[in-house]
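Still learning. Show one?

>
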Amino acid sequence: MRKPKLALTATLIALLLVAGGAHFLKAQGPQPRPQTWADCELFDGVVTRTDFKPTAGNFDELYAGGSGFKNGVPLISESKPGDADYNGGRWHMNVLKAGVPSNKYANACRVEHLDVADFESTNQYFECPLLPRQGGN
């Protein structure tokens, strides 16, 4: 079972690198810590090794795009801690479709700023709790 967990972590890291570069993965421990916008509030994430079936339970939608979103942050979430529909950091990944300009959403910081039709669903499901940042930005 260790290989699927490592493969998922490696895939997520690769997606984040494609989404905007290595500076989003902070060197704060052994797990990547990507930053994420949710309702224009900035969060840190902690990618954890998980072992669950994507069909078991609810997931929030996470969007990765081109050259990143506002301030180069690689991800936007549809919900955050404190929202009634937040699923505790269980994610389904969506990525910007080929052909969509990579800088189209350079100023976006909430899912309402996105045209979700510009993103395609992946088969990537993972767990990554969101941690509020000091000051929210």
About this structure: The longest strand covers residues 119-127.
